[in-house]
Amino acid sequence: MKFYQNQDKLLLAIDSIIFGFDEGQHELKLLILKRKFEPAMGKWSLMGGFVQKDESIDEAAKRTAFQLTGLQDVYMEQLYTFGDIGRDPGGRIVSVAYFSLIKINDYNKEHVEKHGASWIPISELPDLIFDHSEMVKKAIRKLRIRARTQPIGFELLPEKFTIPQLQGLYEAIYQTPLDKRNFRRKLLAMGLLKKLDEKEKESSKKGAFYYRFRKKKYEELLAKGFNFGL
Amino acid sequence: MKFYQNQDKLLLAIDSIIFGFDEGQHELKLLILKRKFEPAMGKWSLMGGFVQKDESIDEAAKRTAFQLTGLQDVYMEQLYTFGDIGRDPGGRIVSVAYFSLIKINDYNKEHVEKHGASWIPISELPDLIFDHSEMVKKAIRKLRIRARTQPIGFELLPEKFTIPQLQGLYEAIYQTPLDKRNFRRKLLAMGLLKKLDEKEKESSKKGAFYYRFRKKKYEELLAKGFNFGL
DNA sequence: CCAAAAGTGTTCATCGTACACCCATGT
DNA sequence: ACATGGGTGTACGATGAACACTTTTGG
Questions:
Q1: Which chain B residues touch A62 with a CB distance below 8 Å?
Q2: B39-92 pLDDT, tens per residue?
Q3: Where are the domains of chain B?
Q4: What are the angstrom distances between the C-alpha of A169 and each of A67, A68, A99, A137?
Q5: Closest CA-bearing residue to C1' of D7
Q6: Which CATH class is domain B160-223?
Q7: Which chain B positions have a beta carbon within 8 Å of A38's beta carbon?
Q8: Fold of A11-149
């Protein structure tokens, strides 16, 4: 038996907003590419793709992100669905935008180069095609809220990380310097970090202690109605 | 010239989560209906509809809400897009959920009855079909955040409203009593209300002063980076 | 011994919260 | 006169922001 006959079907696409954090630099970067097909060939664009019949939209988002970065299982969050009629001059296409955050040295260079993609600092972004610039703007807003509200930052760094490293990430996300005393106090007050006995000695003579995020503890607290807040 | 050939097309739907506030009662209600068609005929469901080729998704959301309530131009906000493969047993359908908030006495009774819809307090909701209960849960969460963050409450009440009325709305949204002194202080401190010389005398002997929301002032402040917070 | 980054405490203003009584008026 | 909801102020603790010096150690 068939339901829902005679309804219009549409093309449904995914656009992926992939932020990368580069520990060395102090800015978030965005992975964008020059389009290889019409319409708008050669213009700067987000990575995208169409949702197939046999995959969920989340799967489609992960698939397109994988095609570009070679990374599996990145943190990806749905941002918003863009469905104005004229948004894509190539046809009537509704697009679900997703964003993610990856370690910038983690991606697969071959994949990226194959697509003609580049990492561009978010303060230096060129105009993007269609409504992609709007998508990015919305993504940055949402990312900042997420970073305050949920410990997404930790998932970006290696399992062991130092507090100055984490602070650098937050400074990149908010594009503003933070007071290290306040940052450290607030962070440790949540009791979600486990101090290790080991030091990181690359970036300073003195060395900074490594910490580990206590995921289990975090989930326990969450269940009790705890609110992460930085 | 045709682009994007040979891609799968999908059915794209809208589901509308319509909250209503009834000044008399102290609870938000949700407008749900018994499905008139298969699959899941007779079960409780949100109002929905398919996105047509020649309308934006926002327009489709407004259209379906209008069909059910007879109201034009209600505040409607996109919530989330649900696209798991098996979410609708009737076929592969991706649905963009929207939510809105209306004055409960404002809707058109004929429209509502024609669809077999009812207002149900959010604490007494039955199981809904498919993933509709999840949609509602998400909508309540987002509505609460919105109400703290943006003055959506005001748009729900008549142009002239009293502070106790507004407080009642917030109590309904958060499902918790608020301290009237603190509520009033914080509210007035923002300087967004204009006190009128007139009193509302229905609900008390003494009467409560009417206020008006200063929309222009609000937009001015917004432009300067003001954050609404209640 | 010096440069460079890590680490550490205190003060102050602000904000959220808890709390109890008087006011105006219709019946 | 009394019941009903409207309106007001204060005190306390928690939180966020500003701010400068000492420590460690590789070179």
A1: none
A2: 999 999 999 999 999 999 999 999 999 999 999 888 899 999 999 999 999 999
A3: 11-149, 160-223
A4: 26, 23, 17, 19
A5: B181
A6: mainly alpha
A7: 1, 3
A8: Nucleoside Triphosphate Pyrophosphohydrolase (3.90.79)
